[in-house]
TrEMBL record:
Major role in the synthesis of nucleoside triphosphates other than ATP. The ATP gamma phosphate is transferred to the NDP beta phosphate via a ping-pong mechanism, using a phosphorylated active-site intermediate. It comes from Gottschalkia purinilytica. CDD domains: NDPk_I. It comes from the Bacteria. Pfam families: NDK (PF00334). PANTHER family: NUCLEOSIDE DIPHOSPHATE KINASE. This is Nucleoside diphosphate kinase. ATP binds at K9, F57, R85, T91, R102, N112. It is found in: Cytoplasm. The gene is ndk. GO terms for molecular function: ATP binding; metal ion binding; nucleoside diphosphate kinase activity. Its main location: cytoplasm.
Amino acid sequence: MEKTLVIIKPDGVERGLIGEVISRYERKGLKIKECRLINATKDILEQHYIEHKEKPFYEGLVSYMMRGPVVVMIVEGNEAIQLVRNINGSTKPTEAAMGTIRGDFANSVTENIVHASDSIESSEREISIWF
Ligand SMILES: Nc1nc2c(ncn2[C@@H]2O[C@H](COP(=O)(O)OP(=O)(O)O)[C@@H](O)[C@H]2O)c(=O)[nH]1
Ligand SMILES: [Mg+2]
């Protein structure tokens, strides 16, 4: 069983998509093992997005993630990391397939509803940051 760290970002919470997002994981047979609605701090986001620290969009990304509450979850299941990435869809809304969360709901590169870990190493690192 794999565990992956999922975040419903502030735009997902603002738009009332918490239930929609969670139900897509549940319908796939994945289990929600932990789930919290919190306000992310700058400190936690700096750790979480360390790989993007030098990117031009970094400051905007961190302030967007602090705009309002986020839902942080641990999602578990067989191949959960790749399954959740598939359910979420590609980062860019123009590339995210219809039927994915981002394909169906996102229209901005930054504001794309959800985050999910991209590997076993990142899932372990991210879970230890948030839980
Ligand atoms: N404005 C802007 N934001 C970006 C860009 N690339 C990524 N982001 C934001 O930064 C987050 C992290 O980027 P990345 O790890 O590459 O994508 P993810 O793993 O699909 O979420 C994305 O989900 C977006 O919110 C970009 O080129 N421009
Ligand atoms: Mg990423």
